[in-house]
Amino acid sequence: MGDATLSYMIIGFAGFIVLSIFFYYVPFFLWLSAQVSGVRISLIQLFLMRIRNVPPSIIVPSLIEAHKAGLTNVSRDNLEAHYMTGGHVQRVVHALVSASKAGIDLSFEKATAIDLAGRDVFEAVQTSVNPKVLDTPPVAAVAKNGIQLIAKARVTVRANIQQLVGGAGEDTILARVGEGIVSSIGSAETHESVLENPDSISKLVLRKGLDQGTAYEILSIDIADIDVGKNIGATLQMDQANADKNIAQAKAEERRAMAVATEQEMKARAQEAKAQVILAEKEVPLALAEALRQGHMGFMDYYKLENLKGDTAMRDAIAKINPTDVLGKK
Q1: Tens of pLDDT, residues 100-143
Q2: Which segments of the chain does DSSP mark as H helices, in order?
Q3: How far apart are CA 135 and CA 157, in angstroms?
Q4: Which secondary structure element, helix H or strand E, spans residue 120, and what is its range?
Q5: Beta bridge pairs of residue 154
């Protein structure tokens, strides 16, 4: 009895292993589910999927979903090929079903191309049906009167299915809208006109066609908030005035330095001239003595010259006397 029981256990275990391997390579229940749903697929095809490393648990439910949605352009070979190229089969089928129900023209080839391009095709279809709202970061711009305005906008976009492959994304949309806001505020004469009519920004930006070459279609641009910032014009004028003042001070300092240098040069020349006069005066007595020895000057001439010098010295002394001092002493 013991050997028989052990034999039955071994046979049962071996049968379990064989059945496990069989149902792994031949997913019978998936085949049964497909047959019940109306999807014609054989057990051999499911077995070959395992051999090709394509999971039937992904392909068969996707085929059933497409069949139930009435999609006739989705085949098993196409789904297998898309999976083997690295695509998301279930996401593509979900997108095709949603597009079909929403009346959006989306072919299987287009959907797989969008998916392989790295975009979420199902989310794109959802965005095409239900538009998305993008909030721009605060955009600072300056009106012509020099007042800074800080604006925030809400951009409502809808996915453009035909531009999803190769089209620019949300960052480009936000950058272009920010550029349009800066241009609109910068062209305004005063910041009051912008605050009174904020919709003028939206109208001007929408006319620019900012969604060209992008994966989205801009439906509306709404200015959510506008704040008054700094007086940039006054700040720039103050900076310019300070710069002009510094330049004027530098030029004045340069002129002062040149004047000081000129004064020093004139003093040096005066000292040099005075030194030359002193040297010349030292030569006068020698010249007089030489003139007396050679008879070019007589004694009376020399006497008259001395009287003239004394008279000149007396006159200089009289000229230096302050009359108020003399009257005060009296």
Answers
A1: 888 888 888 888 888 888 888 888 888 888 888 888 888 888 88
A2: 2-25, 28-37, 43-51, 56-69, 76-84, 89-102, 108-116, 121-129, 170-186, 191-196, 199-206, 232-294, 299-319, 323-329
A3: 11
A4: none
A5: 135, 222
Q: Are 191 and 147 in contact (CB under 8 A)?
A: yes
> Both tokens of residue 275?
């030194």
Q: Which residues pair with 140 in a beta bridge?
A: 150
Distance of CA 244 to the CA centre of its chain: 31
Backbone angles phi, psi at 141, to 5 degrees: -145, 160
pLDDT in tens, 37-52: 888 888 788 778 877 8
Q: Which two tokens stand for residue 203?
A: 């109208």
36-44, long-range: CB within 8 Å, 24+ apart, which pairs?
Answer: 37/64, 37/67, 37/68, 38/67, 39/63, 39/64, 39/67, 41/76
Pairing of strands 139-142, 132-135: unpaired
C-alpha 65/C-alpha 31 separation (Å) is: 14
d(CA 245, CA 253): 12
Inter-CA distances, 48 with 56, 77, 125, 165, 321, Å: 10, 12, 33, 33, 135
- From residue 272, alpha-carbon distances to 223, 260, 266 in Å are 81, 18, 10
Report the 10 Å Cβ neighbour count for 141.
Answer: 23
Please measure the distance between the N-terminal and C-terminal CA atoms of the chain and give it in whole angstroms.
167
Residues 6+ apart with CB under 8 A from 105: 99, 161
- The residues, ordered by sequence, that sit 6+ positions from 188 with a Cβ below 8 Å of its Cβ are 143, 144, 194, 200
